[in-house]
Amino acid sequence: MNATLFTDVSIFDGTGSDPFAGEVLVEGNRIAKIATGEQRIDRSEGVAVVDGEGGCLMPGLVEPHGHISFTDVAALKDLGEIPPEEHVLKTMHNAKRLLDSGFTSVYSAASAKPRLDIVIRNEIDAGRIPGPRMRAASPEITSTGGLGDERLAHLYRQGLEMIADGPDEMRKTVRYLIREGVDSIKINLSGDAFVRPGFEEQCAYSDAEVAAAAEEAHDRGCWLAGHARADGAVRLALKHNFRVIYHCDYATPETIDLLEEAKDRIFLAPAIGIIYATVYEAGDWRVTPEVVERMGLIPMLEHCQKVHRELHKRGLRILPGGDYGFAWNPNGNNARDLEHFVTMLGYTGNEVLSAATQLGGQIMGMGDELGLIKEGYLADLLLIDGDPTQDVTLLQTRDNLLMIMQDGQYHKPPRPGKS
Hints:
By secondary structure, the chain is α/β, with parallel strands linked by helices. The chain is built from twelve helices and 17 strands. Strands 1, 2, 3, 4, 5, 15, 16 and 17 form an eight-stranded mixed beta sheet that branches. Strands 10-9-11-12-13-14 form a six-stranded parallel beta sheet, with helices on one face. Strands 6-7-8 form a three-stranded parallel beta sheet. The longest helix has 17 residues, at 84-100.
């Protein structure tokens, strides 16, 4: 059995506690032993020793709102125009890009084609391509005229969405996607200001439609995730036991109370990164200050901050993941959301790193073996040059990732001289 011993490291274990000096032994794909302080782990013959030189050893990051099949496009409609052969390759490259950036797991928030996530997940699981361990999502299910409906009345256009109207179509669509092998069904429960002003506060589906989809998913053991900016959409997600609720920007105080009541069964991810990037960094794509004002994005950003600061105070499980995969918010930049949580949502470095690791393991459905540096847990590990609890922006620079280990195997081995 392969064994690796990390020495002279500062260990951030993912719980949110301060880093501590110690050593970590990996055997096979699991963390076998942890020594703290002056304790030392036996240097058995055949164990590869890595001198961390005081760097920070931490769990691999988890992206909870992944779109690895979103190929850094400027508009959703562009995704439908990518031929499937090229789209598979582009998605494969994005998967590697995330792993190169320290994200050893990804919970997908929608695929751009029905089987893209499934195929990539299966290839990663089989060890044939590099990428994060993955929970595969469906395309976004949306209603006629809803978010993602990019069809034209006069001309056929292939979109990324799956249109379902009425309870029967919802049932059929969910059954089809589960048959194909998705882990999570994504439903657009609300619109979005990125499409047209005010759309973000409108619900896309009736209670009966959502109930039908939820019944099918729950009966077949499939998770549900919802795009829910509108208050009513958040309530629909809560009522029908969605496991993951994205955005929640316009949740009212009453709905925040309901979210708190459900905090042990739900995960939230505000995706603040895409709003910030669109407001401040999309000028090269003709998103001018006038366009930002017309779309109402600054008020939406303010709502997002206000709501999630309050939810954080109440102890909800909120994860950093910012809808990466667009031209001004590309895949590979995902660690920026850690900084956004600190600067805009009031998190400490320890808190946001715990959200990106410990809570990440939980959203993956693997909280008893992923997301912590703990004996018996999977060896998804990063060695960082510096202390990310004091400066989370360190994780945005790949050169600061001195080592990336996934499932006990190096994706990025330590530099020569460290082992």
